[in-house]
Amino acid sequence: MTTFSDIARDLDRQAIELPSWAFGNSGTRFNVFAQKGVPRDPFEKIADAAQVHRYTGLAPSVALHIPWDRVDDFDNLRAHAEGLGVRLGTINTNTFQDDDYMLGSFCHHDERVRDKAVAHAVECVDIMDVTGSRDLKVWLPDGLNYPGQGDLRDRQDRLADSLARVYARLGDHQRLVLEYKFFEPAFYATDVPDWGTSYAHCVALGERAVVCLDTGHHAPGTNIEFIVMQLLRLGRLGAFDFNSRFYADDDLMVGAADPFQLFRIMHEVIRGGGYDEDSEIAFMLDQCHNIEPKIPGQIRSVLNVQEATAKALLVDRDALVAAERAGDVLGGNAVLMNAYDTDVRADLADWRASRGLPPDPMTAYLESGYADQIVGDRLGGEQAGWGA
Ligand code: PSV
Ligand code: MN
């Protein structure tokens, strides 16, 4: 039997990176909803992210998105973050909001557009040098809407070349994290549609190229924990973008749609060494809060990840291995279900209290008055948003 006291110390090293864009206005292609008190610049986004860390102790870094988070002086932004007790994390490229990229970016048939996309990613590495970020995350909108629109093979060759040019710019301690997505914005064919394609490009690039698994980027029914296992086994699982989907890329709060799936994912992470002290996996959220308040939405999300992690840590590994080796089908399943069915909420509240954190982070945040304060303070200016 593994008990909570056996795993309490393992929870201390959990770190979940927050996406700056979770704090800006967002929506669907139908509408972007404006919420009161939303940040007007990257400094205010980081201030909001710091609130999540303050009440949960789980979110010490913030991912930036360029150009959404472009500032004149990244050194200043870095100092601002550090002054609030957080640091700047992954830098995300954006080659999807410029008319030049209508037919693609890294895979584009026109060398001018491809050069522009590569130059953008290289500029992101320049920014990483100042922010101290380790990871450059590349998600591409590239693909085709119609058969015959482009040559699938040529596009892969151009992709490999573009990625190699960006990879060559990385410093020794930096990584290229290549994200895959099975469809959207292209509907017929996507140039990095699955983990295998991402993996193949990463292997060709070198050891510092790793795969990002966005939990939302899979077809319904996909066994995501299998992919987690395989990428860990191959040594190329670089990052998670956590979120939930009911249908496609819904970007809902992680653990909201299927907490059991999140548990199974964390179980494979732990099984494969991805939660070990020396693990280099970046655990990130990639979410938007279209209809719920954003800071509480992020608090809920990191707590969901923590809860799933605690349950996965509770899996009695020895009993599981014994059952598996004995061919004990129900026994093995029971070991997993016993861990998943454990209610860890009271233990987690105690864990927080013993670490000087509020036992109930959500209530503590709601009672802090911060939400009213930002509504009162953030008048005038233009609210941040991803502008869909
Ligand atoms: C688009 O699907 C996306 O959500 C990708 O998952 C990226 O990680 C994110 O946008 C930010 O660029
Ligand atoms: Mn993502």
Structure description:
- The chain has helices spanning 4-11, 42-56, 74-83, 111-131, 152-169, 195-205, 224-233, 259-271, 294-313, 317-325, 329-341, 345-354, 361-368, 370-377; strands at 17-19, 26-27, 32-33, 61-65, 87-92, 135-138, 143-144, 175-179, 189-190, 209-214, 237-242, 282-285.
- By secondary structure, it is α/β, with parallel strands linked by helices.
- Strands 1-4-5-6-8-10-11-12 form an eight-stranded parallel beta sheet.
- Strand 2 (26-27) and strand 3 (32-33) form a beta hairpin.
- Helix 8 (259-271) crosses helix 9.
- The termini are far apart.
- The mean pLDDT is 97.
- Bound molecules: alpha-D-psicofuranose and manganese (II) ion.
- Residues 139, 179, 214, 241, 286 line the site of manganese (II) ion.
- Residues 65, 92, 139, 179, 181, 214, 241, 249, 286 line the site of alpha-D-psicofuranose.
